[in-house]
What we know:
Oligomer: heterodimer
Strand content of chain B: 15-25%
Largest sheet of chain A: 6 strands, mixed
Bound molecules: adenosine-5'-triphosphate, magnesium ion
Distance between the termini of chain B: 47 Å
Radius of gyration of chain B: 35 Å
Shape of chain B: elongated
Amino acid sequence: MIEIKNLKMSLSSAGRPVTILDEINLHVPAKEFLAIVGPSGSGKSTLLGLTAGLDRPTEGSIVIDGTSLSDLNEDQLATLRREKIGMVFQSFHLIPTMSALENVQIPLELQGRDDAAEAARTLMAAVGLAERCHHYPVQLSGGEQQRVAVARAYAGSPALLLADEPTGNLDSKNGERIIELLLKLHQDQGNTLILVTHDMDLASRADRIITLRDGKVVEETRRP
Amino acid sequence: MGKLSKKHAGLKNNRFIFKMLWREVRGALRHFVFFLSSIAIGVGAIVGVGNIAVNFEAMTEHEAKNLLAADLEARLNRPLSPEGEAVLSELRQAGVQSVRVSEMVAMASNPESTQTQLVELKAVETAYPFYGRLQLDPPVAQPFEDEGVVFVEEGLLLRLKLAVGEKIGLGDADFTVGGVVRREPDKVAGPFSIGPRVLISQEVLQRTGLVKVGSRVRNRLLLKTAEDWPLEKLKNHLLEQWADESVRINTYREVRPRLRRFLDNFTTYLGVVGLITLLIGGIGVGGNVHAFLTERIKTIAILKSLGTASSTILKIYLGLTLLLGSIGGLIGIGLGIGVYHILGNLLSGFLPPGFHFQLSFTPIAQGVSMGLLTALLFSIWPLRVVGEVSPSRVFRHEVEAIPNRTEKGRLAGRFFLMASLVLAWIALAVWQADSWKLGGSVAAGLAVAMVLLLLSGRATLFLMKHMGKPRCLSLRYGITNLYRPGRQVAAILLSLGIAVMVLLTLKQVEKNLMAQLEQNIPEAAPGLFFIDIQSDQKEGLMTILDQWVLKRPTALTPLIRSRLDAINGQKISEMNLEGRRDSWYFTREYVLTYQEELPQHNVVKRGLWWDGTPAGREEMLSVEAEAAQHLGIDLGSEVRFDIQGVPVSGKISSVRDVDWGSMTTNFYFIFPPEALAGAPETFVATVTADAADDHAIQNAVIDAFPNITIIPIREILETISRILQEVARTVEFMAMLGLTVGLVVVSGAIAATRGRRVHEMVLFKILGATRPNLMAMMAVEYAVFGLLAAVVGGGLSVACAWVVVHFFLDIPWQFAWRVLLVGGLVTMVLTVLTGFLVTYRTLGEKPLVALRTE
Ligand SMILES: Nc1ncnc2c1ncn2[C@@H]1O[C@H](COP(=O)(O)OP(=O)(O)OP(=O)(O)O)[C@@H](O)[C@H]1O
Ligand SMILES: [Mg+2]
């Protein structure tokens, strides 16, 4: 489903060029659960962002379902995300001025679904927050916010889900709930899941683990 | 702690305040662009108008001293009775000097050609003027001794192609132009003039033969005090002795010419618009400070948890407000000078030639202090949170960090604060308008408008929220964005709404006024008005007029001069009218007419008009309602007139309502034709021809019948309309300043949400929104803001304009829906453009970078 070739990303930091990602080659087949681990600053978030088309690589190509991201303009990238990609972040990134339900509704509405409200309500129920639909993000706990974020990420039934340390800001109990949720939805919907994490226990549940260091893939383990 | 160390601590605290203040200014000047421009434009408006007002005042003041050219003036509605003349000659013997002044509009001609020109004739006597200087070129020692000489304004010579020393025709005779009038003391500068001045002696006026029955002459007496007759004594003596005469007496102290009063009112109203502009700016300041504090709320909370006293923090931000208010005020001075030059240009028609504007200090100082006070007043409300902030809450809340506490003590405190702020602003308004009534009513009106704006805004938002959500995504988000927390909807609605209200009110009043004028110009109003047509000139006049294609047949209206002789058999001379304020109705001269048909603009209120009444017609008489009321007569009353010694009487058979505003000759009393047969009469006629023919018609008529006076009504109306347009443009310019500030406030309010918007946009992008999606959402949001302001402001403006048109102007109300439609659209377009200008760059934010900075 994803084909990454010779991916290189360099940025200039304080006037000096910094290479964040270097010669990444990666193939992710459909329905795989891939975990990315690595020390802080190794480029995990950047790799995920590039995969989602949120920025452009300096060199190399990313092909998703036969479409090369470099052939798409910004709006076409947005359309691609709308149709295929869902994202979950460490710091939740809910829209603070919208209620939980409205946050979940957005991807559905962008897809032009007439039943967006009902579908969003169903999703909220699925993440166990049916009662909290009209609360604003600040009125929810971190774990609850992240569950809303997961509901939002799955709302558009994406073929690819990118999760960047989704449990990083949560205590272990809440973190566990999020992971269960993610994996259950991954199984139910049969999508591709790429999860960035520091938690080796968690990573070990993936089909495959790759380790990044200084922008390079230094290790790859496949679950037996 | 000892005294000294206390003092030391105080000093240290002050140092801390200044340091913090400096840090904030340095770090946040960019944030305060909107604060500064709001105050600057408001101050600019006030400084500009203030300077114009001072200059106009100086101009009229300058001329006021010589305005009368005398100590006392008596305006005569009719000639003095012999008794009245006796009083005057007694005074003359006691050393009081007097000059008779007669003014009328007449036609001057060049006897050598056929050129004619309407002039303002003014006849005086040798002692004129008592004060001020009459400057003639070439100078003449005794200008009014020679009965064959007239003095004219230079413009007339140019138009008639004449030179000093040549002949000029006035009425029945020709005279020599003795010189050019360079300066005339009691001529009021201004645009209300019909033609160039011709200055003559009373003897010359007699020789012209222009003063006849029916001609419009304004007579005045100028008096100069004597040693035994100081001003007040003289005035009281005359008031007493001339109680039965139809005179109005003014001393030089009381003279307030029309122009002066007009300019006074006008600049006051411009000032009010300036004040409103400043108020709108104040709302912007409030919004800006609120947004700034929302951003700083964490800093404040940290300072507090580090043990800084609330009062110290308050001082920091109050100091910041004062500093910014002063900077804004200084920029405002610059803007104000610009505004003042623009206004000066727009109003140049009101200035006498050669009058130079001068900047003056007082209005500048007033404008700046108004600006500073406004900045302070409008900052205090948002600044109250400094005291209310509780650190523990702040660290949790993100969106609306301002706490929403409603404890009783705090509520009362807030109410008290709000009330004192409102009162303080009313005091400012009174100060600026220089009148309790005006300032108070402006402040009250604005308060009502603001409450209505907010209420209707709330109501609209409520309706929108509960109306069911539109299908279209952008529409949905654009609209729901409005009632999300932290959007400053109130500030936007208030500032834009008030600006729209003021602008559209002015526009609608103007449209109504212009419609009224235009209605009169092409149709109802004739181009020319002829006075003093003698019976034997009727046919000749008609033959002349036949040479042109007239838009309407010319009607000759007979005029018969008379006096009331008796009512219901009781003679007027035997009535006791002393102390009656309306005695004028009994003693005045009545111009009678006879008509077969009920004239236009007349409506019979009681009784019947005489058409179709075969018997007893010659007995009938129709009276105007108001006169009937004053004279105490009604249907059936018998009224007797004295027409040059011949008594004519009639029984009231109808009471009419007359539209005095119509541009036609109207009468208090109308007889049926047979009743006045044979009475000495002259005629007036209204001639409606093609505008291009007016001049030729005037020339032909004057040529054939020099005694006929012609008033070019079209020209006069055009002058009035030109002046009105000048006034309208000026007022509009001021209102545009208000709208500009309104848009600045909108920009500020939108900019305040910028950070949040960037975050939202990026998230939307991540969720798959394209730039067209985002732009549509933005456009809808701003357009709904604009629409809301336009609908509510426009609605209020209809009410305001209706009040002005109906109660103050007293002209028929026309619903100017085009103004509202265009105004609403323009408001929406401008709001959308402003919004885009402030936020278009957020569209281009790179998602990854933006998320990182979050
Ligand atoms: N816009 C940027 N400008 C400069 N440097 C950047 C930029 N974005 C990322 N970097 C640098 O690139 C490197 C990789 O960043 P990235 O966020 O991908 O790391 P990460 O593996 O996700 O780390 P963490 O586990 O802490 O989230 C870091 O050293 C970071 O400082
Ligand atoms: Mg990261």
